[in-house]
């Protein structure tokens, strides 16, 4: 026997809006999906139906609005029949004889079913299981009073269904239970685009399929001028906090957002929004951005290289990322700046401060400013506990007054840029917790706040043409900037990366 599941929205006449989209056959088990034309209706409870002959039919009515995202667009039997086959006279005859129909009082009302449709339904009770920390399929089923035989059968499935053996907290399983509380249907969203769908067939075997949503991408362009705070101005321009953080991360190598921002600074951002079924799913990446700091405009564009690594580059192909972090610690303020000092003309004393002091609470992690090797980790008189890193070429960085070293940090150990190496303290001669940070070029102290930091490796010459091809359009959009109303809607299957 053949089963058909059809998908639509129940609150408008199905015949008016259904259009076949795709059909997947799996042996005797066939799925037919329909996409509704109008997705801007008020969110309505949905129903799942199997529209076939006689008593094997199934209807599953999600209990909550939340359920909609999982059992997305599942239709009542009436729509199914309108789309697939008109009810036959024989079906009408079974009208009131079906005692197996379960009425789920707790459900939001589904679209009214026509009597001849109800007759052939075996309704499933829908139940949503939310995975908690430490849950396995068996723990989850046990807690919900479900039968071990079902999770054992589900756990034996291979392919995409193996995901059921790697449940994560927050995963949602939408189940359809028959009147013996056995699992007849299961939907679980696997990621932004994929839903695992499992149905029990006539022989009691579980069959799985994978529903794949098309995401569409919309480019959004936003610009703003900073008045008081970057975050406030960005917000009023329509930029989320997350994207604002990303924007500061992109330019943080050249702009010190704690110290350098001035009223009148400007930004332009082009980013992606990802849509599923016409609804905003999430924000994507920043594609290109311009930040004008004190009259100087900096630009960055996202480029995915031939090894599929994405990074931000200046229009000339130099990476935005530098070989060194400007500040190796999240500080509350700079308590002392760099000064080489000079002989006081009268007192004849020298007061030099060959580094920068970053005040920060005791225990604040200190990051390696660049990739390198630990050449010293120990005590140095008034500097207290000190780490010195040797970097490629002629660069050294020094971190003093540490509260403690990070475990494993000792002479000879290699570190990556951004690795925590130690914690802020006040060892040695210090009046309060702070990081004393020195930057040496060829053994000579320079001002860490002013030194021109070397770039990370640039785009290879061989790849320059590819870079220019990929980024030219985005850079042109920064030139002829048109805030969001010029946004493009593009089909995205080829340029949306799966999470
Ligand atoms: Zn100092």
TrEMBL record:
It comes from the Bacteria. Keywords: Hydrolase, Metal-binding, Metalloprotease, Protease, Zinc. InterPro entries: Cell_wall_metabolism_enzyme, Csd3_N2, Dup_hybrid_motif, LysM_Opacity-associatedA, M23ase_b-sheet_dom. Residues 220-339 form the Csd3-like second N-terminal domain. One of its GO terms (molecular function) is metal ion binding. Residues 352-448 form the M23ase beta-sheet core domain. It holds the Pfam family LysM_OapA. CDD domains: M23_peptidase. This is M24/M37 family peptidase. It comes from Oceanococcus atlanticus.
């Amino acid at each position: 026997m053949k089963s058909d599941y059809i998908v639509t929205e129940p609150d408008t006449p199905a015949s008016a809006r259904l259009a076949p989209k795709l059909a997947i056959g799996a042996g005797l088990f066939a799925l037919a999906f329909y996409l509704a034309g109008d997705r801007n209706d008020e969110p309505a409870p949905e129903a799942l139906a199997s529209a076939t002959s006689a008593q094997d039919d199934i209807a599953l009515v999600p209990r909550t609005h939340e359920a909609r995202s999982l059992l997305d667009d599942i239709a009542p039997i009436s729509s199914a029949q309108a789309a697939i086959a008109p009810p036959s006279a024989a079906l009408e005859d079974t009208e009131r004889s079906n005692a197996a129909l379960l009425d789920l009082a707790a459900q939001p009302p589904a679209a009214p079913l026509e009597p001849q449709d109800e007759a052939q339904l075996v309704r499933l009770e829908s139940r949503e299981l939310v995975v908690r920390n430490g849950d396995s399929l068996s723990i989850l089923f046990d807690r919900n009073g479900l039968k071990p035989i079902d999770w054992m059968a589900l756990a034996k499935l291979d392919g995409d269904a193996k995901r059921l053996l790697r449940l994560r907290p927050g995963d949602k399983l939408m189940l359809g239970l028959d009147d013996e509380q056995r699992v007849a249907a299961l939907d679980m969203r696997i990621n932004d685009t994929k839903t695992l769908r499992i149905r029990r067939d006539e022989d009691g075997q579980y069959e799985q399929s994978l529903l794949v949503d098309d995401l569409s991408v919309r480019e959004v362009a936003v610009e703003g001028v900073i008045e008081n705070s970057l975050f406030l101005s960005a917000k009023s321009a329509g930029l989320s906090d997350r994207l604002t953080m990303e924007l500061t991360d992109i330019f943080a190598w050249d702009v010190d957002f704690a110290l350098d921002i001035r009223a009148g600074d400007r930004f332009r951002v082009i980013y992606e929004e990802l849509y599923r079924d016409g609804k905003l799913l999430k924000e994507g990446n920043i594609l290109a951005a311009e930040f004008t700091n004190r009259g100087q405009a900096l630009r960055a564009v996202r480029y995915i290289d031939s090894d599929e690594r994405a990074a931000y580059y200046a229009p000339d192909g130099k990476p935005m990322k530098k070989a060194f972090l400007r500040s190796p610690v999240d500080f509350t303020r700079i308590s002392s700046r760099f000064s080489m000092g000079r002989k006081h003309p009268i007192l004849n004393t020298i007061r030099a401060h060959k580094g920068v002091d970053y005040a920060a609470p005791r225990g604040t992690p200190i990051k390696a400013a660049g990739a390198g090797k630990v050449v010293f980790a120990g005590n140095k008189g008034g500097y207290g506990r000190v780490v010195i890193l040797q970097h490629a070429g002629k660069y050294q960085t020094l971190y003093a007054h540490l509260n403690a070293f990070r475990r494993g940090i000792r002479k000879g150990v290699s570190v990556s840029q951004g690795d925590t190496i130690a914690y802020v303290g006040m060892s040695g001669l210090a009046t309060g917790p702070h990081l004393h940070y020195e930057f040496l070029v060829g053994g000579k102290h320079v001002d860490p706040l002013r030194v021109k930091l070397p770039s990370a490796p640039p785009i290879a010459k061989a790849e320059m043409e590819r870079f220019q091809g990929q980024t030219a359009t985005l850079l042109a959009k920064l030139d002829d900037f048109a805030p969001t109303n010029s946004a493009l809607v593009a089909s995205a299957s080829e340029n949306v990366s799966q999470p």
